[in-house]
Amino acid sequence: MNRILTFLLVDDDADDCDFFREAVREIDATSICYTAENGEDALVKLRNGLQKRPDFIFLDLNMPRMDGKHCLAELKKDPKLRDIPVIIYTTSSAPEDIEETHLLGASYFLTKPSDYQKLLKDLFFVMGRDWSQQPQMLRF
């Protein structure tokens, strides 16, 4: 990696967060991985509390307080945050979730893999893509 990449993982599942952080560290030990427990926490951190703006937001859909879809809608309304690529990172593979998050402005829909090697492959894909040139949402 040429620069230090920064991630914000928004997920209320501690095991999923550990799994994700471990994979990010394996790919690039210099990367920064912030976490937030729900959409509300993520918005507060993004607006007031992170030392470095994330290059990517990985967003779970099913969380307490503010779910991922509501958070995504709020992110895309905010002129300071709307251009950060949002990767939906959820256990869902429901077509209606894929469609709805696409319409809300997500860059990519990634169903959480249970296999560590698959997660590494998915992260390599996300980290290696130029998301500023992406005309429509992709799905793995």
The level-1 CATH class: Alpha Beta
The helix/strand class is alpha/beta
Q: Helices and strands, in N-to-C order?
A: EHEHEHEHEHE
Using the CA coordinates, give the radius of gyration: 14 Å
What's the count of strands?
6
CATH topology: Rossmann fold
Number of domains: 1
Within CATH, the superfamily carries the name: Response regulator
Tell me the number of helical segments per DSSP (H or I, 4 or more residues long): 5
The rounded distance between the terminal residues' Cα atoms is 22 Å
Q: Walk across the major sheet and give the strand order.
A: 2-1-3-4-5-6
Largest sheet at a glance? 6 strands, parallel
Shape: globular
Going by CATH, the architecture would be 3-Layer(aba) Sandwich
Average predicted local confidence, pLDDT: 90
